[in-house]
Amino acid sequence: MKNVTDSFVSLGHWPSAGSFGFNTDILATNPINLSVVLGVLIFFGKGVLNDLLDNRKQRILSTIRNSEELRRGAIEQLERARAHLRKVEMEADEYRMNGYSEIEREKANLINATSSSLEQLENYKNETLHFEQQRAINQVRQQVFQQALQGALGTLNSCLNSELHLRTISANIGILGGPWKK
């Protein structure tokens, strides 16, 4: 029995040339296993890997083409927006200039209208002052005339007696040539 046990132990450690056994030396078996696995993967997985890489390449190229188209579209849109902006800026400048000239025109019109109104008011004021002066002068003349007339009448009444008074009236009627003249 010892021989059977020794043969298993010897198989575990030192495999013989024609027998099957487990090699427990990891450093010796890993490169062999890896090369076998890689060989199988390369042989069988080469087509699948090529298909995956081709699909990936086509997707990347398609994405690049789409990105280029989007970029061109964005550039065109940007140029249209810039042209529209220039147009709007020109219109805004035109409106601004028209607005300024319109404001200046309105300002000049307002100044002219105000000047005209002030001139009319000045004329009305002068006319009113002249009218009031004439009225005051006329009132003063009337008062002076009334006072002079009252003074003359008072003087005549005191100086004239009734006979002289009647002769003066008759003489004045005679000068005037009234219908009472005989």
UniProtKB/TrEMBL annotation:
Listed transmembrane segments: 32-49
Membrane topology, as annotated: Single-pass membrane protein
Localization, UniProt: Membrane; Plastid, Chloroplast thylakoid membrane
Presence of the UniProt keyword Thylakoid in the record: yes
UniProt xrefs under Pfam families: ATP-synt_B (PF00430)
Coiled-coil stretches noted in the UniProt entry, renumbered to this chain: 64-98
GO cellular component: chloroplast thylakoid membrane; proton-transporting ATP synthase complex
Location (main, coarse): membrane
A single MF term (Gene Ontology): proton-transporting ATP synthase activity, rotational mechanism
Keywords tagged on the record: ATP synthesis, CF(0), Chloroplast, Coiled coil, Hydrogen ion transport, Ion transport, Membrane, Plastid, Thylakoid, Transmembrane, Transmembrane helix, Transport
Function: Component of the F(0) channel, it forms part of the peripheral stalk, linking F(1) to F(0). F(1)F(0) ATP synthase produces ATP from ADP in the presence of a proton or sodium gradient. F-type ATPases consist of two structural domains, F(1) containing the extramembraneous catalytic core and F(0) containing the membrane proton channel, linked together by a central stalk and a peripheral stalk. During catalysis, ATP synthesis in the catalytic domain of F(1) is coupled via a rotary mechanism of the central stalk subunits to proton translocation.
Family designation: Belongs to the ATPase B chain family.
Other known facts: In plastids the F-type ATPase is also known as CF(1)CF(0).
Assembly mode: F-type ATPases have 2 components, F(1) - the catalytic core - and F(0) - the membrane proton channel. F(1) has five subunits: alpha(3), beta(3), gamma(1), delta(1), epsilon(1). F(0) has four main subunits: a(1), b(1), b'(1) and c(10-14). The alpha and beta chains form an alternating ring which encloses part of the gamma chain. F(1) is attached to F(0) by a central stalk formed by the gamma and epsilon chains, while a peripheral stalk is formed by the delta, b and b' chains.
Protein name according to UniProt: ATP synthase subunit b, chloroplastic
Organism whose genome encodes this protein: Dracaena draco
